[in-house]
Fold this protein.
Amino acid sequence: MKTWTDDLPQIPFAYRDLPEGGEWMTREEVASSLGIGEFHLNALLMNTNRIAMVRTTTGKELAVTRASIEAEKQWRATASHWHKALRLLKDTLRAL
């Protein structure tokens, strides 16, 4: 059965190769680690380039590098309220 998405062009994603040694986390682990929900995590992953996504060995699932999550946690812990508000404004404008 043909669906409306069959004729759309396939856009290649620029995901990195899976890092060695378990230096990646699943999306559920990332949401739990950052203390955010699934919707907020999806918005963070798709609207910004701060979180590095990788493909798992099967190539079907997506994961996130631990280094990018640690950098995000560090930024959230040390950024002022002004910088957080400015980042939210930029991310919102970028999403439009």
Notes: The radius of gyration is 16 Å. The chain has four helices and three strands. Helices lie at 27-34, 38-47, 66-78, 81-95. The beta strands are 24-25, 53-55, 62-65.
